[in-house]
Amino acid sequence: MDEFLQKQNEIYKNLKDKQHTMNIIALFRFIVFILIILFLLIGYFYQKYNFYIFSLVALIIFMILVYFHQKSKEQYDYFYALNQVYLRHILRIQGKWKDFSENGEQFINDKDYKITDLDILGPSSLFQMINVASIYQGKKYLSYLLTHDSQKDDIIKRQEAISELSSIKEFVIEMEALNILLNNQSLIDGSKKLKK
Known about the structure:
mainly alpha; 7 helices
């Protein structure tokens, strides 16, 4: 738990730093934009043609700032997704996973009472506790694996895969963060419970 909190704190600091950088670049972008307008107006109204050159130089500076702002935004989005993944894991460790909105209810078959009776799907379910999928197909496949019988060999292979993945936490967390980025969504439902 301490490892997750420490890592999440580092990521949160990076997130704030990137946000600060983006704000500074945005401020300079605004100033340069005003300068472009000002140079164009001076050049037009006072027939000072060298101000057109100044406005062209300011436009180039503006485009460079737009480029750097976009790069900073991409880094910010990455750290935001990573922060969301760590927060979700921390909430899961703290036992607050029951607050996650994804509980697999949409996959419940009304004819199979065991699924809800054994808390496999639905509120406070196994699905709700272990789900890290962010796309529908992944959630559907997880619900299928939890609700359908499997051969012993298949179960053992899955257990070995999970054991291998649990030994490379950074990779798994990175994959979750990239999944959030690719799907452009946030997975934290209870993020307000862990305030900075």
